[in-house]
C-alpha cells in the first residue's frame, strides 16, 4: 500500500517517538558505527524477539564493543526506535490514497494492494516484532494505534470520494468499510507471509482486490494480479 508520502496534506504520525532515537552522529565514522548497530539490532530483534534480545548480542552482531553501543543508545528501547524509524517508510499500511478522476479505481486499488503485500513480505519478521513490542510497551502501542488510525482515515476519505463521484456504493459506511478492508488485508498478509501458506503475492493481490471492489460495489472488469 502507499506510504506516508501518499497522504498529501494529512500527516501520518511517526511509528516511534523521535525524541528517543539516541545520539546522532557528527562524523562519517560515527554514522557508520551507528548504522551498523541499527542493522545489527534489527537482525537480533528479528532472530531472538524483543523481550529475549540482549544488548551484548547486538554489539557482537555489529562487531563493536558494548561501550560503542552506549555511545549512541542508552538502552534497548532507543535502538529499537532507531530500527523502526529507518524501516517505517518501507512498512506500508493497507489501503489506497486519493484516486484521481482520470485513474482506474480498480487498477489503483490493485497496485496499492501489491505494494502492501510486497512490503509486508520483505518485512515479515519485523511485523512480528511490532506485535511483540506493542504487547509490552503502552507508549509504542499508542503510537501504533494513532498511526493505524491515520491510515484508516485516509482510506475512508478515498472511499467517500469514490461514493461522491458515483463510483462506489453510497450505502456503505466509508469509515467502517476502511477499518474492515484494512484489517482484512493486514490479516491476510500476516497469515500468508508470517504463519505461512502456499499462496503467492499474485494470489493475494487478486483476491484482496476483488474483495475490495465487491465490498465497495465498484464496476469490475476481469481482475489480474498485474
Automatic annotation (TrEMBL):
It comes from the Bacteria. InterPro entries: EthR_C, Homeodomain-like_sf, HTH-type_TetR-like_transc_reg, HTH_TetR, Tet_transcr_reg_TetR-rel_C_sf. The keyword Phosphoprotein does not apply. GO terms for molecular function: DNA-binding transcription factor activity; transcription cis-regulatory region binding. Keywords: DNA-binding, Transcription, Transcription regulation. Residues 31-91 form the HTH tetR-type domain. It holds the Pfam family TetR_N. The keyword Nucleus does not apply. PANTHER family: HTH-TYPE TRANSCRIPTIONAL REGULATOR BETI (PTHR30055:SF234), HTH-TYPE TRANSCRIPTIONAL REGULATOR RUTR (PTHR30055). This is TetR/AcrR family transcriptional regulator.
Amino acid at each position: 500500500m502507499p506510504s506516508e508520502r501518499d497522504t498529501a496534506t494529512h500527516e501520518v504520525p511517526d511509528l516511534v517517538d523521535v525524541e528517543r532515537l539516541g545520539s546522532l552522529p557528527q562524523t562519517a565514522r560515527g554514522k557508520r558505527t551507528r548504522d551498523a548497530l541499527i542493522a545489527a539490532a534489527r537482525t537480533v530483534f528479528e532472530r531472538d524477539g524483543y523481550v529475549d534480545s540482549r544488548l551484548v548480542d547486538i554489539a557482537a552482531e555489529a562487531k563493536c564493543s558494548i561501550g560503542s553501543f552506549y555511545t549512541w543508545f542508552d538502552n534497548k528501547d532507543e535502538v529499537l526506535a532507531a530500527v523502526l524509524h529507518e524501516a517505517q517508510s518501507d512498512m506500508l499500511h493497507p489501503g489506497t490514497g486519493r484516486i484521481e478522476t482520470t485513474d482506474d479505481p480498480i487498477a489503483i486499488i490493485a497496485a496499492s494492494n501489491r505494494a502492501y503485500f510486497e512490503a509486508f513480505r520483505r518485512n515479515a519478521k519485523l511485523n512480528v516484532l511490532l506485535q511483540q513490542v506493542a504487547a509490552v510497551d503502552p507508549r509504542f502501542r499508542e503510537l501504533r494505534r494513532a498511526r493505524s488510525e491515520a491510515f484508516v482515515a485516509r482510506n475512508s476519505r478515498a472511499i467517500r470520494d469514490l461514493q461522491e463521484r458515483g463510483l462506489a456504493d453510497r450505502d456503505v459506511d466509508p469509515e467502517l468499510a476502511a477499518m474492515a478492508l484494512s484489517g482484512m488485508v493486514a490479516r491476510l498478509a500476516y497469515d500468508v507471509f508470517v504463519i505461512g501458506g502456499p499462496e503467492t503475492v499474485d494470489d493475494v493481490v487478486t483476491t484482496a482486490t476483488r474483495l475490495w471492489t465487491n465490498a465497495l460495489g465498484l464496476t469490475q472488469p476481469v481482475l489480474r494480479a498485474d
